[in-house]
């Protein structure tokens, strides 16, 4: 079903919603702890992500956005509701690069290929191709500690792509980077998303980042996390994070976000 | 709901992102440099040599000043003569080899036994609860304490020697592996899981390589413990079947009241223990740590 992506249509175009979703989250609840004394983290989340769509999940701390991403990644099970992914197991990127320090950059990617079943003879060339894609050609033999923070996240992106999934889950992947590097990586991610026709579910607490990247921003309320509001963004890509369009919408969303946060101080 | 931008953002050319990215990479590149060999020699080899020379100097001085009787404190030259004697008799290497072979083969056996125990303790909760504390306890028990028991159970023979080595080294090897596995960051385990590393693939590609630094530390300590306990066992247990190793040589010289020979024995035991560490474990450990960026500086 997810392979039904049409090549004629740009992933950035808006008419993506009429196809079967790449990620279908239906009435998902998640609680932690014993029944009775449980903390309700996610409350009836329903969200479809269309193939090729770029969605950011936005929320303050405690909104369960990372928990939701873990559920979609299959690292944890929902307490109620269902999550359907018709395709391959999704790839997940974290705030920390999570690369294996005992392997070189290239070997990290080759390990993902190996675990995904790529034949040995093809791994090296495929790893080189992916490094090329994130503009790190020549970094195959570099040790992880020899790379800068931005380069590590790009290797992590290449490794995620090596899993061969159309769905990429990103858990605040650029939060630990400096602003200049983050800006460049936004451009790179936008380019790769469009080129590779990826479906991206991107978690962040940074409103401008959410608006800079996404076709759709989903605001979650906190404790428990619920879908509070959604915005569809038609600004052309690649956007500039400083642009007026991004700024205007960011102000609107920030106001909404502050409203959500304020409710928690009132009782 | 939707927002439309009246002033479209300037189109960012593809090359711009690439150029800025390349510039950042060049600026951010982490500079790692290997210290030149001459510097390593000057900074790491010279100080211990100077220290040894100083000790020899003080020793010689104490001898020349006749601080005590010659049979209690021979000169460095007399110890050297004892070494030359052993060399001339042709027994020097057989003495060293007897002990070294025992120590190394016992240590290899300890690794073969300790590694699966470590894996089990680290990965199976009930096993950990049952024998984890015993392993830690055994680690602090000097394995010389086993010599009398081993002599009664096994007799004065090689089995006793190996039993003492194993009791000394197996807990260190197993505990090292447990500590190594415990220290693998949970994030790496998660990222392994998202890539589909489960079961054996998880052990092979995530757990074991992640645990390597802790495991190596355990091996190193295991060697130190086996060498130590072997020397003690050789000192205590005497039998013609056992041949003459370094510990036995040391005890023989004491019986002859030959202080030069005793000092020579101590020095040889020290040299063998240090040599194995310097030639084998240290380079291995340094390589593993450097590859992971954990060895920041050589200074």
In short:
The complex is a heterodimer of chains A (267) and B (299). Chain A has seven helices and nine strands; from the N terminus they run βββαββαααβαβαββα. Chain A is α/β, with parallel strands linked by helices and 267 residues long.
Q: What does this entry look like structurally?
A:
The complex is a heterodimer of chains A (267) and B (299). Chain A has 267 residues and is an alpha/beta fold. Chain A folds into two domains: 20-90 and 166-267, P-loop containing nucleotide triphosphate hydrolases (Rossmann fold, 3-Layer(aba) Sandwich); 97-164, no CATH class. Chain A has seven helices and nine strands, in the order βββαββαααβαβαββα. Chain A has helices at 65-73, 105-115, 120-133, 149-162, 179-196, 207-213, 244-262; strands at 23-32, 39-49, 54-58, 80-84, 91-93, 167-171, 199-204, 216-220, 227-232. In chain A, strands 5-6-7-3-8-9 form a six-stranded mixed sheet, with helices on both faces. Chain A has a three-stranded antiparallel sheet with strand order 2-1-4, covered by helices on one side. The longest helix of chain A is centred in the C-terminal third of the chain and has 19 residues, at 244-262. Chain A is globular, with a radius of gyration of 19 Å. Chain B is mostly helical. Chain B has a domain at 96-291: MetI-like fold. Chain B is built from eleven helices and no strands. In chain B, helix 9 (199-236) runs antiparallel to helix 11. The longest helix of chain B has 38 residues, at 199-236. Mean pLDDT of chain B is 86; it is low at 1-14. Chains A and B meet through helix 2, helix 4, helix 5, strand 9 and helix 7 of A and helix 1, helix 8 and helix 9 of B.
């Amino acid at each position: 079903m997810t392979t039904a992506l049409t090549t004629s249509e740009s992933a950035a175009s808006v008419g993506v919603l009429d196809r079967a979703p790449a990620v279908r989250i239906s009435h998902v609840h998640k609680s932690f702890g014993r029944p009775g004394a449980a903390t309700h983290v996610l409350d009836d989340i329903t969200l479809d992500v269309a193939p090729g769509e770029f969605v950011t999940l936005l929320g303050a701390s405690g909104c369960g956005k990372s928990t939701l991403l873990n559920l979609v990644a299959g690292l944890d099970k929902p307490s109620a509701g269902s999550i359907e992914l018709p395709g391959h197991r999704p790839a997940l990127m974290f705030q920390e690069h999570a690369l294996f320090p005992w392997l070189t950059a290239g070997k990290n990617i080759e390990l993902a290929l190996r675990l995904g079943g790529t034949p040995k003879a093809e791994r090296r060339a495929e790893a080189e191709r992916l490094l090329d894609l994130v503009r790190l050609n020549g970094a195959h033999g570099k040790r992880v500690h020899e790379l800068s923070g931005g380069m590590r996240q790009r290797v992590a992106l290449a490794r995620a792509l090596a899993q061969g999934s159309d769905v990429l889950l990103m858990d605040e992947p650029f939060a630990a980077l400096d602003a200049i590097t983050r800006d460049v990586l936004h451009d790179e991610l936008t380019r790769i998303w469009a080129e590779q026709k990826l479906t991206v579910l991107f978690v962040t607490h940074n409103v401008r980042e959410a608006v800079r990247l996404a076709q759709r921003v989903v605001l979650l309320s906190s404790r428990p996390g619920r879908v509070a509001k959604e915005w569809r963004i038609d600004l052309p890509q690649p956007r500039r994070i400083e642009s007026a369009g991004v700024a205007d919408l960011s102000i609107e969303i920030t106001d909404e976000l502050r409203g959500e946060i304020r409710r928690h101080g009132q009782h | 709901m939707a927002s439309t931008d009246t002033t479209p953002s300037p189109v960012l050319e593809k090359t711009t992102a690439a150029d800025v990215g390349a510039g950042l990479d060049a600026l951010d590149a982490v500079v790692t440099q290997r210290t030149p060999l001459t510097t390593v020699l000057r900074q790491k080899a010279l100080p211990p040599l100077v220290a040894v020379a100083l000790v020899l100097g003080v020793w010689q001085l104490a001898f020349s000043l006749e601080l005590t009787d010659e049979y209690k404190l021979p000169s460095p030259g007399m110890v050297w003569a004892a070494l030359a004697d052993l060399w001339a008799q042709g027994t020097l290497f057989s003495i060293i080899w007897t002990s070294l072979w025992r120590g190394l083969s016992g240590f290899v056996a300890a690794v073969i036994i300790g590694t699966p125990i470590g894996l089990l303790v680290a990965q199976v909760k009930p096993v950990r609860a049952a024998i984890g504390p015993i392993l830690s306890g055994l680690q602090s028990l000097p394995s010389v304490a086993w010599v009398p028991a081993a002599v009664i159970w096994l007799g004065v023979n090689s089995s006793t020697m190996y039993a003492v080595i194993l009791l000394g080294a197996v807990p260190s090897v197993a505990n090292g592996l447990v500590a190594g596995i415990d220290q693998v960051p949970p994030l790496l385990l998660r990222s392994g899981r998202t890539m589909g590393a489960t079961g054996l693939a998880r052990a092979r590609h995530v757990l074991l390589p992640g645990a390597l630094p802790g495991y190596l530390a355990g091996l190193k300590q295991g060697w130190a413990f086996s060498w130590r306990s072997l020397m003690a066992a050789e000192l205590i247990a005497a039998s013609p079947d056992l041949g003459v190793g370094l510990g036995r040589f040391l005890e023989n010289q004491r019986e002859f009241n030959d202080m030069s020979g005793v000092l020579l024995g101590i020095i040889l035991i020290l040299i063998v223990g240090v040599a194995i560490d310097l030639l084998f474990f240290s380079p291995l450990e340094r390589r593993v740590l450097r590859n992971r960026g954990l060895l920041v500086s050589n200074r």
